[in-house]
Design goal:
With 292 residues, the chain is of the alpha/beta class. It folds into two domains: 2-218, Rossmann fold (3-Layer(aba) Sandwich), CATH 3.40.50; 221-285. 38% of the residues lie in helices and 10% in strands.
Length: 292
């Protein structure tokens, strides 16, 4: 999500931005895999600076040095600073102490609707992103989160549909929901900070929908092709074996028809030589001690 946000910012503005991502440290080893940068492509730009920090503790979502890091980055003249937490649980709101605008990213797979009551960030976040919107039940989750946001913020004079909750598919190129989310966040930044970051990014009002290169009902089409080919090869081998037998029988019949008289004469002579119409002496075939 942060990578897509940075990419849109670079298209929308000519300013400099910074992404400061915090990764959790493991309690057992004390180490942290600073892997956020591995999956980011937009940061490979001279106007972007990427820095990863470890929490150094397993039960925190931010590093204790985030405040000092932000002060240094402000002094360096960066126009937009993005702080990404490690997101360890439902009750973490520490990021609010360091940010002007907060964005909470969640997925439709949060469980029962009652679980939304436990998420503190729904009380304080300015914008909510419901990422992986192509998951089953995403529309129901979007409705529930919007209603929960309305209750938490006491926005009874507004419709649930107008809540700043957006279904997004960040992994999809030029996702409409991600475009709307970016525009909303930038507008909120201008509203709360009066920063000269008025976005002109073009958006549409359509909802995020997964665009499939291969339709879901055809996801096994390669397997179906290979299965069909194997079935065809088996049928060909079976038919070839039958054809060989038929060819052999046809040639045998043809040979018999051509040499019928010769074969008949041959067999007659052979049988005649072997035929002995005189009965042998019975005694020659009796066992010893048998009465004649």
């Amino acid at each position: 999500m942060v990578d897509e946000f940075v990419r849109r910012f670079l298209i929308d503005f000519k300013d400099k931005t910074i992404d400061c991502s915090v990764d959790p440290s493991k309690r057992k080893t004390g180490g942290a895999l600073l892997g956020d940068r591995i999956r980011m492509n937009a940061i490979n730009n001279s106007r972007v600076y990427m820095r990863s920090l470890a929490t150094r503790q397993s039960n925190l979502a931010l590093s204790q040095y985030v405040k000092e890091a932000i002060q240094i980055l402000k002094a360096a003249g960066f126009d937009l600073i993005i702080i990404e937490t490690s997101g360890i649980g439902q009750s973490d709101t520490e990021i609010l102490d360091h940010s002007d605008v907060s964005l909470y990213v969640m997925t439709p797979e949060y469980g029962a609707a009652t679980q939304l009551e436990k998420i503190d960030m729904l009380d304080f976040a300015d914008v909510i992103a419901l990422n992986k919107f192509d998951k089953r039940g995403a529309l129901d989750a979007l409705r529930d989160v919007k209603k929960q946001y309305q209750r938490n913020h006491q926005l009874w004079d507004q419709k649930p549909e107008d809540m700043p909750v957006f279904g997004t598919i960040a992994s999809q190129f030029n996702d409409p929901g991600t475009n709307q989310l970016y525009k909303q966040v930038m507008d909120k930044i201008v509203e709360k900070t009066n920063a000269p970051l008025q976005s002109t990014f073009a958006i549409t009002q359509e909802m995020s929908d997964k665009i499939f290169v291969i339709p879901p009902h055809r996801t096994r089409y390669l397997s179906e092709i290979s299965e069909n080919n194997r079935a065809y090869d088996t049928w060909v081998n079976e038919q070839a074996a039958v054809s060989e037998k038929l060819f052999a029988l046809d040639k045998t019949i043809e040979s018999l028809n051509e040499s019928h008289q010769d074969i008949k004469k041959y067999y007659w002579l052979n049988l005649k030589d072997k035929l002995n119409l005189d009965p042998p002496k019975i005694g020659n075939y009796l066992k010893p001690g048998t009465k004649k």
